[in-house]
Design goal:
With 397 residues, this protein is of the alpha/beta class. It has 15 helices and 12 strands. Helix content is 34%, strand content 16%.
C-alpha cells in the first residue's frame, strides 16, 4: 500500500487505550444504503531469539503485526493480556513486533530471504488479502496443519473458501474491515446512498478517493454493475475510463491514504471513499460523521495470519493461531481493536464481556450486511502490473 498506516487504524492519544478512546465516541454510525444505521459504540527485521524448530512446549514464536492491532494494557503498551495468557498456558515465549506499516514495504523486507529459501526470522505474519494471495501463489507460505488449530473450526462460514486461498489451506483471517463512503449528512445537506451520489455539483473538487487500487476500483466496478470478484479486464478498463472522466471533470480533489481523514474532519472535503476505522476516529469529535456502504455494495477486506516459508517454529505459530480462534480470546481482542471479527461464537462471548459492543454491527455484521460486501479477485503478477499501471496513470502517481 502507499499509505503510511494500516487501513482503518485509529491512532489514539498517548496513555489512552483504543478501547477507552472508542468508548468516548458517543453517537455516530455506519449506514447501509437500503438498510439501517449501524451505531458505533463508544522497523527493522525481527531477530529470532531461541526459536524452536519442533514447536512443542518450548521455544519462541516471532510474530510480526501492524501497529495497534492487539489488546494492549492501558498503562503499558508492551503488555498484551491475551499473549500473556498464551505464554502461560503453552510455555512458549512470543516475540511480538509491530513492524508492518505497509504490505509492499514489508514484502520488500522479507522477500529476499524467501526467494533465497532462507528463514525470514518470523513464524507468523499478518498481511492483507491481496498480499496474502501473493505470498501463497509464490510459494512463500507454509501450509497450515489444522490438527494444530482445532479452533479453526470456529471460522465464520463466509471466510472459509476464498479465491486466493481455497479451503483456507495457508491462511486464516485476523481481523476485517470495510471500505465505503465517509461523510457528515447534516453538513452536506443531503444523503449519500450510492458512489455516484458523490459526483454532484456540491461536491465537485471536494471528494477524495483512496490510492489503494482495490478499494477505489472495487467501488467503481460495483457502481457499474460489475463484480470485483469476477469482472473481466474489459470491465476494469471501462471502470478506469469512468474514473478518468471524473478526474478530468474535476470531481476528485486527490487520491490519498489515511490522510483524507484530517481533511474530512476539517471540512476541506465534503466526502471521501473511506475505511470504516477512520470514520470511527472522526466520530470522536464529530458524532454526526457516518460510514456508508453503498447500495451497490462495499468492499470487505481482511488481514490474514500466515506462517512464512521456512519458519523456525511453525507448530508454535499454529498453536498461537489456535489460541486466538478461541471465541473468548477473540472477544478480548475485538473489544480493544473494534474490527470485524472472523471467529464464530465471539459475539456470544462479547455479550458477557461488553453487552453494548456485542450489538455493534461494525464488529458483528449481520449476514445481510456481509452479503453486500465484496473482495477483489486475486491477480497474477503480470495482471497486477497491468491493473496498477492503468490505475496509477489515472491518479497521477
Amino acid at each position: 500500500m502507499t499509505h503510511p498506516y494500516r487501513r482503518g487504524h485509529v491512532q489514539t492519544r498517548p496513555g489512552l487505550s483504543r478501547r477507552g478512546f472508542l468508548q468516548a465516541l458517543g453517537a455516530g454510525g455506519v449506514v447501509l444504503a437500503a438498510g439501517p444505521v449501524l451505531t458505533a459504540c463508544g522497523t527493522d527485521p525481527v531477530t529470532p531469539s531461541g526459536a524452536s524448530g519442533g514447536g512443542g512446549g518450548s521455544g519462541t514464536v516471532n510474530w510480526s503485526n501492524w501497529p495497534l492491532y492487539l489488546d494492549t494494557d492501558e498503562d503499558d503498551e508492551n503488555a498484551h493480556a491475551t499473549l500473556a495468557a498464551f505464554e502461560d498456558a503453552s510455555g512458549l515465549e512470543v516475540n511480538y513486533t509491530e513492524d508492518i506499516n505497509s504490505n509492499d514495504e514489508f514484502f520488500g523486507k522479507i522477500s529476499p530471504q524467501l526467494q533465497a529459501g532462507q528463514s525470514t526470522g518470523r513464524d507468523l505474519v499478518v498481511l492483507t488479502d491481496w498480499m496474502a494471495g501473493r505470498m501463497i501463489s509464490l510459494g512463500y507460505a507454509e501450509e497450515l496443519d489444522k490438527a494444530n488449530i482445532p479452533n479453526a473450526d470456529n471460522l465464520i462460514a463466509s471466510y472459509r473458501d476464498l479465491d486466493f486461498d481455497p479451503g483456507r489451506a495457508f491462511s486464516l483471517p485476523w481481523q476485517s474491515g470495510m471500505t465505503g463512503i465517509g461523510y457528515d449528512p447534516e453538513k452536506l445537506g443531503r444523503e449519500i446512498v450510492e458512489l455516484d451520489d458523490l459526483f454532484q455539483p456540491d461536491l465537485k473538487g471536494r471528494i477524495t478517493m483512496l490510492s489503494e487500487m482495490r478499494d477505489t476500483m472495487g467501488l467503481v466496478l460495483l457502481s457499474m454493475g460489475a463484480s470485483p470478484e469476477e469482472h473481466t479486464f474489459a470491465e476494469y478498463e471501462a471502470a478506469i475510463a469512468k474514473l478518468q472522466g471524473l478526474v478530468d471533470d474535476g470531481y476528485v480533489r486527490s487520491f490519498t491514504g489515511n490522510d483524507y481523514a484530517a481533511d474530512l474532519a476539517s471540512g476541506n472535503i465534503g466526502a471521501a471513499v473511506a475505511w470504516s476505522g477512520d470514520v470511527l476516529q472522526l466520530q470522536a469529535d464529530n458524532p454526526g460523521m457516518q460510514f456508508v456502504v453503498p447500495g451497490a455494495g462495499g468492499i470487505l477486506w481482511s488481514d490474514n495470519l500466515l506462517v512464512p516459508k521456512g519458519a523456525a517454529n511453525k507448530a508454535g505459530a499454529e498453536a498461537l493461531i489456535d489460541h486466538y480462534y478461541d471465541p473468548e480470546v477473540a472477544a478480548q481482542v475485538a473489544a480493544w481493536v473494534n474490527y470485524v471479527t472472523p471467529v464464530e461464537g465471539t459475539q456470544e462471548a462479547m455479550a458477557e464481556l461488553d453487552p453494548e459492543l456485542a450489538e455493534d454491527e461494525l464488529i458483528f455484521p449481520t449476514e445481510q450486511t456481509l452479503g453486500r460486501l465484496h473482495s477483489f479477485k486475486p491477480l497474477e503478477e503480470a495482471e497486477e502490473r497491468e491493473y496498477q499501471d492503468l490505475f496509477q496513470k489515472v491518479i497521477g502517481a
